[in-house]
Amino acid sequence: MLPILHLNGYKIANPTLLARISHDELKSLFVGYGYKPFFVEGDDPETMHQAMADTLDEVMKEIHAIQHRARDKGETIRPCWPMIVLRSPKGWTGPKDVDGKKTEDSWRSHQVPFSEMATKKDHIRLLEKWMKSYKPEELFDETGQLIPELAELAPKGERRMGANPHANGGLLLKDLKMPDFQDYAVEVPKPGKVMAEATRVMGAFLRDVMKRNMGNRNFLVFGPDETASNRLGALFEVTNRRWVADTIPEDEHLAVDGRVLEILSEHTCQGWLEGYLLTGRHGLFSCYEAFIHIIDSMFNQHAKWLKVTGSEIPWRRPIASLNYLLTSHVWRQDHNGFSHQDPGFIDHVANKKAEVIRIYLPPDANSLLFVADTCLRSRNLVNVIVAGKQPGLQYLSMDAAIKHCTAGIGIWEWASNDKGGEPDVVMACAGDIPTLETLAAVDLLRKQVPDLKVRVVNVVNLMKLQPQSEHPHGLSDREFDVLFTTDKPIIFAFHGYPWLIHRLTYRRTNHKNLHVRGYKEEGTTTTPFDMVVLNDLDRFHLVADVIDRVPKLGYLAAYAKQTIRDKKIDHKTYIAQYGDDMPDIKNWKWPY
Amino acid sequence: MLPILHLNGYKIANPTLLARISHDELKSLFVGYGYKPFFVEGDDPETMHQAMADTLDEVMKEIHAIQHRARDKGETIRPCWPMIVLRSPKGWTGPKDVDGKKTEDSWRSHQVPFSEMATKKDHIRLLEKWMKSYKPEELFDETGQLIPELAELAPKGERRMGANPHANGGLLLKDLKMPDFQDYAVEVPKPGKVMAEATRVMGAFLRDVMKRNMGNRNFLVFGPDETASNRLGALFEVTNRRWVADTIPEDEHLAVDGRVLEILSEHTCQGWLEGYLLTGRHGLFSCYEAFIHIIDSMFNQHAKWLKVTGSEIPWRRPIASLNYLLTSHVWRQDHNGFSHQDPGFIDHVANKKAEVIRIYLPPDANSLLFVADTCLRSRNLVNVIVAGKQPGLQYLSMDAAIKHCTAGIGIWEWASNDKGGEPDVVMACAGDIPTLETLAAVDLLRKQVPDLKVRVVNVVNLMKLQPQSEHPHGLSDREFDVLFTTDKPIIFAFHGYPWLIHRLTYRRTNHKNLHVRGYKEEGTTTTPFDMVVLNDLDRFHLVADVIDRVPKLGYLAAYAKQTIRDKKIDHKTYIAQYGDDMPDIKNWKWPY
Q1: How much is the pTM?
Q2: A29, B33: Cβ pair inside 8 Å?
Q3: What is the mean pLDDT of chain B?
Q4: Strands, DSSP E only, in B289-343?
């Protein structure tokens, strides 16, 4: 890779900054960036061609010397790679002036140096003079063909820029050698009893993906300094963080060939991963959920690229998917706070073409394993996985997780009591914390209103909610109606902003009975349960929502709501005193 | 301003990059950034205190010398401002080791250097030793009070960091002196006949806002090199682009005291504007619509700050609103293309607290003037204005614009024919191009089905669509039902992604009959009309939507839809041949 800064002085309406600082400052800047800059500067085409050729020769010599020291002498210290500053006029060899205004070497030559050909005869003459200055009679024969000596200069076959396999990464893509994700399963003898940290379990799986593909050197994990914090530290059993700057003896897990790329810049992580995928390799970007918005705009361009190349450009071969693991999410803010709370990246993603986007909210470790495996095997997609890193209840055995996640959505029979009859209410949930609160609410309802028929539906693959006509994963209306009924109240506890669920389901028969709870921009640094209380997503609120919406429970409302009110006051008093959640909240497990 | 890079070597789990490059590279980097770096380096507290004090003295002398040259000698060349690199151990003076692992001067001292106090007695002892190392007996008296000699060192009154008025900008805020926006009105004798460029009209208004407040120096306009391209060039009649780097004689509108800040970095524009507002001044950020996503994450933090300080911290005085003008929007891609198409920033904004966000889609120049005036006068909000820069039809006289925009939503009587009766269909629109297509569709319907009763509703203030309970600007359900009926089909032509309208209206009575057209990620570099055709937002498609949804028009469907199909084929053929829209499309005006 040889970076060339083409410093032509201007952008759309202004000089560029780097063109207007001193030579010394400019040189210092690139030295500060770790490069050895070479300058090619001038405006006479002939001289500049020679200067550029000489500089390229010199630079290639430098590169070969570095490669020799590294490859033949085993030198591992970071080299000072060469780069070139090419300073030439903007609009070079275009018209010097148009209508008496400086155009070559000015912002005026940006994009359209002059126009109005139909009305200004001068402009036509100017265009003709300009075009003729390239001496077409020396370049083309009488039939308009490029003369053979020039045509021969063009590279052939894979040396052509557009045919270089590195510019069509799918050609170079090798499948990842995948371990069996079932080998990493958490034992879940009964639902809602065992605790595990979902991303830590995934970490062990990723470690072995890394190990198996070390030989092919085609898998990297990216993150803003959070691989360990996000509980993916098992990776460091088989690889290191890539580090080419100075080291000291106390350093841990830093190496020039490390396959975990950490930098506290989501932009850089995203850019690295995109480049890596586009050149035919595989990767995963793990990020704090709130801060992935930093790369919203970069994601946009990648999703647009996938849309166009995936469906409209047949010679482009599929590349590995862009995989995000969003963790350290909105609902656990024990150490961070309001600034770290934003589950809206999935709203942003859902605006892009359905064919290229997937959003998964696995509720526990085994379902996360299944989803991670699916994402790493997929092609030409953007996969967003949202999963917590904190210890949490486990609901699904591996066998149950495979069935549930393959469907992407389904009734949790063990949590429901409507089998063989009609439910009075559907309690739906998506995301680990909303699932926990939903189940705890179901427990409260079972105790307070044993004859209430509750159906629990869990959603892993969010796109299942959309109509089939809108997304390839969408349920048919018939399937949706069977799950959610056509006329019963649905209380939906959701990980993100509630309106995303409304948006995905507004065409469904029972949308009028859908009531969604989710994050509504209320939060601070507080206990896990207080976060859900602040946003009306807690078990008590969900119970109140059920009582409000199931007609036959009307008689319960007054007393039940007063109990709930008191519970919330207890909670507030307790956390103010102990800085921790009440034991019966914190230690709640599914008691059946 | 004195930048200090506190280079303590580590972040959460890694060394920092700048701590592990050579002194020369680090120095070069800051020289390249235009600074004169001073280094304070070491780990002995006493020596370091002295070194820091000496360096601060030296640096202050430098700053005073620069100020003297500028203020007394009139020197205007860019000075090399000093900055300090303070290199000290992370976790300095904390425990050297914890459990045998290096902690001071290591990433392990990040945030929580050690914990588990309840279970590890060693840790309690370590904590005690550490705390006692600060000699509390010398700092506090027997009652625990700070000793008077130390207490006196703290600054008083406004010199206290938290009481400095520059950290509570509202204290310093002066109202902008506003010209009368009505003076810039476009003459609109009849709706839909006259053409104007909305943002160019706004440019003249901004010019005079700038002029009137020049004395107070409290208004700046920010943009990524697009002020002229976005047609706000009138500003350069009264001010310049701020430019402190080198200049050449041919430069235009560059000056050290320019009040338009242009840099091709949306991040920098956003950061500058936030800082400017927080210190009590006013500003506007104009940006290409698609690229404002670059600052999604920065917007989040500002919106969260406004939510907390606006409603929860009474001593914080209101500051001027953060104003965005999004132009060069999705529907005009004559020169750009798919990469420049994303109207989703308003979806992102709508996720934040209703109290602090406002979204305006003025359909023409006079309505834009009204909205711009409203935004510049407002406090503690984020205002997003979406408005095209291309020549477009004008619908509202200034008088009509004031009435329509004050309400934020309303029936356009002159375009409707249902007065005195019930409408058969409500044609709603928000945004300049959707308004144009809606009116052209109404024209086609009037010609084809003269007895069809059509009501045209235009939305300027998007938040009017939300329920009153969700947004302070929301219409009551009664008001909404009166405008949109409770049972007639609504065809809504929207500027952005269609689901935003569904999300805002899902609780409304007539939501089930709402059908929204908008951007659905289809586009390329093409003609204006082709952009709407590609996204099914064109006049023909809107007519087809009406025919499909108004029961009494069923008989028309077969022939009408065939005509529409033929029209679209004509359009495709024409643009392929001429690269421009058909004259009857391009030159369409409201014919009544």
Answers
A1: 0.96
A2: yes
A3: 95
A4: 322-327
